[in-house]
Write a structure and sequence with these properties.
heterodimer; A: alpha+beta; Alpha-Beta Plaits; 2 domains; four-stranded antiparallel sheet; 5 helices; 4 strands; about 15% strand; B: about 450 residues; mainly alpha; 16 helices; about 0% strand; globular
Chain lengths: ~180, ~450
């Protein structure tokens, strides 16, 4: 990560990019980052990225939501002031549970969805007024950019990348974020 | 081509024979006379101690007046104690007589609905031009082969059982002269009469079987066809069938299931039965697919297909629960006496099956099949599938039994033998049908996509 210089290889086709990634991985070079204008199916697998765990967090957030709903309804409707409202049994939580199910369901979904989205923002470091980390604005339109750290092997890397079908190979100083 | 292994054939025949013996045993042992039932009740009372007096019987009988034994609400205080006693014994005797019929009917319906559910699933796959499922089409077509015999058996049992299952089939109930006259049932006799029941049943079965026949025919013809005309025809009849299906399925569920409680009605009942049949059908599809794959017959089916089928099992388990709960909660919430008795009988006499099926059909699948990795493991899907199937058998059990045998239910020899009988028949017919055609559709336009399906 301390490499001061990186190579930016630019591609114009996602299929070419995919095969380039496989070649670069086969040569055991470390790919720092890839910038694409749209999700490229299978890119994460080719890069060898670890699978996301966000679904697991969502499941746990859902359980939190369910607990909040049950605790809240139990306290308000059963413990704090067990009124007789239209003859509904308020003697225990179970007896009146069917009436609470819509709230239990919605809060489970609410917590799971919102907390998962917030987790996603935090983990991907996204927020309003955040400075964009884009090395080349063309990657938001129709270009793909692969960033590889350089450890004194520029020549070898440049020729390898040119071979993979890169339309541009630039050696640049890495800005500190 | 698949060959029906001798082992499996013998197994299915053994199931049928065992089932038949058990069903016969159920009919013989349930044939109890008035005196025998009277004696049985005395023995039971001696055991239970408590509510031994005749007045207790009278109220018990009155409580059961809405269910189905051809008896009008009695239990007036003015009645003689002897009458109340006689009525109670007769009531119990009817329940005991109804049991083997109901056990047979529940099992017959359960296996019929698997075939019907998968027929609807098949039509949806074709009408939506799904790209993942064509490799499973032949398994689905094999399963739907059970529909025609299965549905005819259900209808035949319904007609032969008569008022053992459908109280409104008792002519006394609509005869104003009779002491069993029931004004509510008589008011519905425009729909609930035996002739109409049979005609409607035959129309449903004819429509479903016609679709099954032609979709199968076009599917086989497409294998060797030069062009795609068979595929187009298949697409058109699938769309037409789905419209026909959703009307007839709804009416079928009123006729064949809801009318066991002729005093009760529910608007989303057709959907609820549909959800049950759909999820059981897909579950059996996954089981048969895994079985055939384990025998090396379906190399072109991979774990991605299994993943998709398991997703359907998962999603439709939740859909079933949604409808089950919507029906239950609306009735529980408003608590209108004329409709709430349905759940009162189920909750007081069927607590374990009623709540147990929610665990088996909802809690279990939602926890087992939520993880994407688990949906790709065959034995995991099989375990979840077996629980889902058992759960939906209990679902049908809970629909029929409370109306026919009341609190005299048990899952014993008559019930289990009936399951064995129809399971054997189902396996025999389905696997025989599977041998009739190659297990991979050849000329179907989406075959290639399906073979290379990857999730």
């Amino acid at each position: 990560m301390e490499a001061s210089k990186v190579i930016h290889a630019i591609y114009t086709d996602d299929d070419v990019l995919m095969s380039a990634v496989k070649k670069v991985k086969a040569e055991k070079h470390h790919i720092e980052e890839i910038y694409t204008p749209f999700p490229v199916h299978g890119l994460d697998k080719a890069m060898g990225l670890a699978p996301t765990r966000i679904a697991i967090t969502a499941f746990m957030y859902g359980l939190v939501g369910l607990t909040v709903a049950i605790t809240m309804m139990n306290f308000i409707m059963i413990e704090d002031w067990p009124q007789n409202i239209g003859g509904k049994p308020s003697f225990s939580y179970l007896e009146n549970m069917p009436a609470f199910v819509p709230i239990m369901f919605e809060l489970t979904v609410f917590f799971a969805a919102h907390l998962m989205v917030i987790t996603f923002y935090l983990r991907s470091r996204m927020w309003p007024f955040k400075e964009a980390e884009n090395p080349d604005p063309r990657t938001t339109d129709d270009h793909f950019l692969m960033e590889i750290a350089v450890h004194g092997n520029e020549k070898e890397l440049e020729s390898l990348l040119a071979e993979t079908g890169a339309v541009e190979v630039n050696l640049v100083d890495k800005e500190a974020h | 081509m698949y060959t029906f292994s001798n082992k499996l054939k013998t197994f299915s025949i053994v199931l049928m024979v065992l089932g038949l013996l058990g069903v016969g045993y159920g009919f013989i042992t349930s044939h109890k006379s008035f005196e025998e039932v009277e004696h049985l009740l005395e023995v039971e009372e001696a055991h239970h101690g408590g509510h031994g007096d005749v007045a207790g019987h009278a109220t018990a009988t009155a409580g059961h007046a809405t269910d189905s034994h051809g008896e009008k609400a009695h239990g007036d205080a003015g009645h003689q104690g002897e009458d109340a006693h006689k009525e109670h014994v007769e009531h119990v005797m009817h329940q005991i007589h109804n049991r083997p019929w109901s056990a047979l009917y529940v099992a017959a319906f359960f296996f019929m609905m698997i075939a019907l559910g998968i027929l609807a699933f098949y039509a949806i796959q074709i009408a939506s031009q799904a790209g993942w499922s064509p490799v499973l089409f032949r398994v689905m077509e094999g399963m739907t082969a059970y529909l025609l015999p299965g549905a005819l058996i259900v209808l035949a049992i319904a007609i032969f059982a008569g008022d053992h299952l459908f109280v409104w089939m008792n002519p006394d109930m609509v005869n104003p002269e009779s002491e069993h006259f029931d004004k509510l049932v008589a008011g519905k006799s425009g729909w609930l009469n035996k002739t109409g029941f049979i005609i409607r049943g035959l129309i449903f079965i004819a429509g479903w079987s016609l679709y099954r026949h032609f979709s199968r025919k076009f599917s086989i013809a497409q294998d060797t066809a030069e062009d795609k005309s068979n595929f187009k025809k298949s697409f058109r009849i699938a769309a037409g069938f789905l419209v026909f299906f959703i009307y007839t399925e709804s009416m079928m569920s009123w006729d064949w299931i809801m009318s066991v409680d002729p005093h009760w009605f529910s608007t989303l009942f057709g959907w609820y039965v549909f959800a049950s049949m759909f999820v059981s059908g897909i579950t059996v599809l996954s089981l048969i697919t895994l079985y055939l794959k384990s025998k090396g017959q379906l190399e072109f089916v991979n774990e991605n297909h299994l993943h998709d089928v398991a997703k359907y099992m998962f999603a439709f388990s939740i859909f079933w629960t949604y409808l089950w709960f919507s029906q239950f909660m609306l009735i529980w919430y408003s608590n209108i006496p004329e409709e709430v008795t349905y759940f009162v009988t189920r909750f007081s006499d069927y607590k374990l099956p009623f709540l147990g099926m929610v665990v088996m059909n909802f809690v279990f699948p939602i926890l087992m099949l939520m993880n994407a990795d688990y949906k790709r493991i065959p034995w995991f899907v099989v375990m979840a599938g077996l629980v889902i199937l058992a759960g939906h058998y209990i679902d049908i059990f809970n629909m029929i039994m409370p109306a026919t045998v009341g609190d005299r239910w048990f899952i014993g020899i008559p019930e289990i033998s009936s399951i064995l009988l129809f399971a054997g028949l189902f396996i025999f017919i389905v696997f025989t049908a599977l041998t009739k055609a190659p297990l991979l559709v050849k000329g179907y336009p989406f075959r290639k996509e399906s073979e290379e399906f990857h999730y």
